[in-house]
């Protein structure tokens, strides 16, 4: 792997994936990868706080990854988003859903999906630092502690 490559670039290189224009992906595809990246960021931060039983880690993590928290996070981050990020977020919010929200209202679910689409887009374009900045700021603005 070449030094300075983003993780998605490294994965593409390692697995022989072709370069794809991510603007051709659906918002739900971006949300799919964004959900995993957000979860990884939160889980990493939780694990770095100390070795605990997996059940405790899971219970602690849930408060950050539920749709309601993600929706609130987007409310407090809205003013920090660039025009491009706001467009991607809206694109994700307006996706056609094929599933129902389990523990959230439809409005919360849409906003959480918008956040996940934004994170997925940022990840796929190699902007992990921006993801970390937004997640850290969102947690701080919500008054939550990792």
Number of strands: 0
Helix content: 55-70%
The assigned structural class equals mainly alpha
Low-confidence stretches: none
Rounded to an integer, what's the Rg over CA atoms? Answer: 15 Å
Return the string of H and E elements. HHHHHHH
Globally, the shape reads globular
Number of helices: 7
Largest sheet: none
User: CA-to-CA gap between the ends?
Assistant: 32 Å
Can you describe this structure in just a few lines?
By secondary structure, the protein is mainly α. It contains seven helices and no strands. Helices cover 66% and strands 0% of the residues.
Write the layout of secondary structure elements.
Blueprint: H1 7-14, H2 27-47, H3 54-65, H4 67-77, H5 83-93, H6 106-124, H7 128-141
Structure description:
The chain is mainly α and about 150 residues long. The chain is about 65% helix and about 0% strand. α5 packs across α6. The chain is globular and about 40 Å long. The chain starts with 6 loop residues before the first helix and ends in a 5-residue tail after the last helix.
Task: Provide tags for this entry.
146 residues, mainly alpha, 0% strand
């Amino acid at each position: 792997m070449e030094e300075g490559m983003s993780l998605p670039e490294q994965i593409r290189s390692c697995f022989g994936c072709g370069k794809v224009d991510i603007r051709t992906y659906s918002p739900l595809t971006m949300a799919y990868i964004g959900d995993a990246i957000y979860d990884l960021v939160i889980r990493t931060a939780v694990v770095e706080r100390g070795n605990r039983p997996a059940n405790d880690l899971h219970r602690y993590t849930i408060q950050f990854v539920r749709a309601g928290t993600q929706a609130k996070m987007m409310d407090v981050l809205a003013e920090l988003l660039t025009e491009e990020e706001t467009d991607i977020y809206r694109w994700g919010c307006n996706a056609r859903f094929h599933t129902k929200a389990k523990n959230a209202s439809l409005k919360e679910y849409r906003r959480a999906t918008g956040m996940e689409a934004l994170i997925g887009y940022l990840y796929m374009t190699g902007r992990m630092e921006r993801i970390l900045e937004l997640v850290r700021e969102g947690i701080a603005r919500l008054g939550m502690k990792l």
